[in-house]
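In this supplementary section we document a worked example of the pipeline. Step one takes a protein sequence of length 693 as its only input; no multiple sequence alignment statistics are reported here. Step two produces a three-dimensional model, which step three serialises into structure tokens for compact storage. The input and output of this example are shown verbatim.
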Amino acid sequence: MKSLILVESPTKAKTLARFLGGKYKIEASMGHIRDLPKGNFGLDLEHNFEPQYVIPKDKRKIIEGLKEEVKDVDKIILATDPDREGEAIAYHLKYILKAEAKKSVAFERIIFHEITPAAISEALEHPKDIDQNLVSAQTGRRVLDRIVGYELSPILWMKIKKGLSAGRVQSIAVRLIVEREREIEKFKTQEFYRIFLVLRKKGDERNIAFELTKVDEKPIEKTQVLKLYDGDYKYAKTSLNEEDAIALKRDIGKKQFVVSDVVQKETKRSAYPPLTTSALAQEASRRLGFSSKRTMGIAQRLYEEGFITYHRTDSYSLSSAFVSETRNYIEKKFGKKYLPEQPVIFKTKSKLAQEAHEAIRPTNIFHEQNDVALKLGKDFAKLYDLIYKRALASQMTDAVFLSTKVEAKASNGARTYTAQANGRVMKFDGFLKVWFYEDGEQIIPELTKGEELEISEINTSAHKTSPPPRYNEASLIAALEKHGIGRPSTYAPTISTIVARYYVEKEDGRFIPTQIGTLVNDFLVKNFSSIDDIPFTSQMEDQLDEIAQGKKDWVPVIREFYGPFEKHIKSAQEEKKIEVEPEKTGEKCPLDGGDVVVRIGRFGKFKACNNFPNCKFRESIVEDSGFLCPRDTGKMALKRTRRGRTFYGCANYPKCDFAVWTKAQLVAQAVPADKNSAPSPIPSISQTTQTTD
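The serialised model returned by step three reads:
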């Protein structure tokens, strides 16, 4: 019997072929082979929003090739990814190829969450039917997004500017960023002071850092709470101004501190759960500086090469086989004290964990970072190491600390001062043997109640209350996940879209809304308030999940959405056009004397004459970083690659190709512009050119 296995990508096909030898013919569809047309709406509103699918031009040769392949096979095995998108690809492959295959051909769907010999063998022995509920959920999402994008985007073109787009999830992401920027602008920064004391035991040279916490038994610090669009923002400030701090410092220096209370207790810190898609994107952003798009691209390759389980998931579950293998590994490598009595089980928080059923984990606990580096390279190895360590650590014992809190009081006359010191000592590292430990608390020497302490030093410290921070990729994904906006497969493309559309820009790794992004957001909030909002978008995701569970049909869900949406569209058409004023540079055009403004093109911002198209003047924007090139002392400018990634490059390019990717590398290698002399030239750690990513 001749059998054909169909997958999405050539890499996945090669990995399967390596495991299965020549038993099966394996071909790749290169992703989706049917989609809604690009040139028109593609939905039949008169017949239950029926999608008018077409085969895209770039897939026609692939389909023709697959049609030839299926003509003489007896079995077609659909081995696409184990989620809604993969189920939809399998469905469309069967739909297209069934007419070309022999009438007796059998179509089978196999599901595996890791590309390993055991998993593939198990899947082949237990084929399934295509899950129509998952296909319906994917269809519902695709139809919903087409309605929003196809009907809302032209309104934005008409009322704001050509070339704009809108989408359910991307619009909420932009709104979060715009709302946060306004909350930052409204925030009133207040100055306050803290008082720090360095105290010592008599006859002991070790310093103990204390902070003044009470005056006359009243706490001087209070926590403030701001109600933000994304939830509560908490920050602390003391009641001390500069005059108070100076006066208290003077008075405290005359007093004797005595230990009033010592509390020591053993505390435990449990391991984190294994990584989900959201957690992986956040950890990779925080620890490796990877964008979500880059992270997901690397994870896709790791999965297809057989190193990790499927990477689009919001489940914390781990297979019993992996847990058993990992527990044996932990005991042999680290000893019994690092092994819990029972396997650690984490409860998934998601309302409906993604269909992959497992968290992201290594497929083989004996595959370490170097194995991946040798085959795929260092970036793949770095991400794999995060996944490996988190999965391994999740099955290890708690870390144990001895926490100490010391209170010391000074009372002499009318005033009483209370200072507090906190310390923590690790008694047993537990899972922190593997995972990152970033605690820097002081070690406090043994103290007893009633013991006198000498004042070694008193310092006042000025502080300012800080506004809520701007979102970076990690915190934006965390916010979307918290509110149930989007799903594991949508985080990376959502962020890529809002950056590519120039609705937001990155500054030191954090998102700032652009003028056009703010205008689009305000227009949508005004005219589509019931749609461009967290509760509605979250509710829609819940309904799509119910479709995936077979509890709802996608057509009524879309119909319920479409009626109110159409009314909003008609109302928005009556709005006045918003005039978008170009950003002026203050410069005059060297050709005709017109104002030079900032415009956005295919590769980012550039300068142009405001009299375009009558005047063709244009010039690249060089954003000065304040540093000079260590090779030729040219200005180091902030630039963007064709894919939108920012870097710092010498302004004298192409004569000098010195470039670095991050601000930290710039500070370490370049020369501050205010210095008169430059150090000896040093090689760049980034040898990439300045025109490609």
